[in-house]
Amino acid sequence: MIYALCVSVFLTCFHISALSLELGFLSVSPGRISRIITIALFLGLLLKERRLPGISKAGRYPVLFWLCFVLFSACSYFWSKDTHAWLKNTCSFAIGFIYLIIFLDTVKSAASLRLLLGSFSLGIVMHNIIAWYQAISGNYILSDKTFSLSSVSFLYTPVSTQNNPNNLSLLLVFGIAACLVLFLMLKKPALKAACVLLAASSAFLIYLGASRACLLALGLMAATVPVAVLPKKKALVFCGILMAVAVAGFLVLPPLRSVVTEFKEIVQGTSSNTSDTIRWNLGLSCLHYTKETHGLGLGAGQFQYYMKNFPTEYFTGHIIKAHSWFAELLVNFGVLPFLGYLVFYVKLILDFLRKKQSPLSKYMRGVLAGLLVGNVIGSISPGTLSNTMWYHLLFGILTAAAVLPPDGNGLSA
User: 110-137 and 165-185 are packed helices; what angle lies between their axes, rounded to 10 degrees?
Assistant: First the structure.
């Protein structure tokens, strides 16, 4: 079963729209076919062995939460106006939920986790190859769009198969975390060196994509790891030093000082930075709709429909995607599911930070906790993530990693 999951993770990560076949209302792609086959194999395995999915006690909470979330998403049909968007969004969350169950049933050891992270990293390798070709040649193969030169004057902005540098950048942030965990898991020097090179290459591609949120996400991930691995007193000292350095940087360095000035101007509505102003106004629009629905939410996948047909007073330049994963959840699903997600998310971070009895070393857990912390900022980069299947699958893998049994293949440091 683990090998079917590996193939599915790879094909979902390395999605190529050019290989998709449009059949009316249905799009058929290698990734989608692999997910159908994987789910069918898992159901066949359960029937053959005459058992229910093997979910540990630690894994019951995320399963229960996501079951309630998917049921709420299904019920939101009754107040959704765009039924096609509702169906697409609900199916994405439902598939993510099914995969969560499969991961929790299958991933019982660090060795299984290593295979999944390896298959995901192989997809990141493919993205790197295509992205570097695009950056050097300016030929946007396997992409529907073209882009101008990046901040490095002789290189173009890479997008790989994602059609947008922000989407690629967030994918690469997760890829860098996977590489770092694999670096700690693997023993062969050549494979360790490959992990370092892939992480460095991915980081530079994020820089070329000019995704400030994802660059900040990498910074937050790097800052979280020492906090996770140091003793409490030293971690507090490190946090104090980090905060002092950050404050000093904002006070002394002009580029950082301008960030504070820009934020004030955005809030006051006097900013000349259209991109940041639009993102701020999209957030205000999410709050507006949440208030108008009395906290119930618009319904699964409905934000874009409302922005197109019932726009708010806030200027967004005809951009109708939320550009914030957390705001997207709030406006579509309402206050209660959103608060439930926050509890789930924070608990996932704390599980990595606090769990001592784990087959993963404290350094591995620190990287994964750092990824989740960085993702809070990094997830504002893409326009929407609700229908992004690799994102749902990766969170299933992260959840399975957080609840690994302590006797699951000793790779602890």
Answer: 140
Query: So where are the chain's domains?
Result: 2-402
What would the pLDDT profile of 316-347 be if each residue is shown by its tens digit? 888 899 999 999 999 999 999 999 999 999 99
Instruction: Specify the pTM.
Output: 0.90
**Residue partners of 411: CB distance under 8 A and separation at least 6:** 110, 111, 114, 185, 359, 360, 361, 364
Instruction: Give the C-alpha separation, 326 to 261, whole Å.
Output: 25
Q: How many Cβ atoms are within 10 Å of 361's Cβ, its own excluded?
A: 18
Distances in Å between the Cα of 181 and the Cα atoms of 217, 243, 360, 392 are 17, 27, 9, 19
256 vs 301, which has greater pLDDT? 301
Q: Tens of pLDDT along 278-301?
A: 888 999 999 999 999 999 999 999
Residue type present at position 216: L
List all residues 6 or more positions away from 6 whose beta carbon is below 8 Å from its beta carbon: 115, 116, 118, 119
d(CA 128, CA 168): 10
